[in-house]
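Lecture 7 notes: from sequence to structure.
We start with the chain below.
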Amino acid sequence: MKTRGAAAETLGRVGFVALGSLVLWGALLIASAVADSWSEGAVAFTRLVPSRDANAWAWLAGLSVVMAIGAAVFGAALLATRGARGASDR
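Predicted structure tokens for the same chain:
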């Protein structure tokens, strides 16, 4: 029984690291698009959206960008609610 729990814990950690890596990769892709938008304009952001006949890497990049945006929105909401809760406690 102990090994089953240890295996689940290990898989959970590996999954958490994998999801975190995807979020960081998406954040880097967004930062790259923002930096390129100074010279290329809005065309730089079209690379973040995969086309219909794109390969798996392009779809994974698009998924990671969505995950990075979702993590940023979730983090901002968490900070806003904790900040509001902290201000009401005073």
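Points to note: The mean pLDDT is 86. The longest helix spans residues 2-40.
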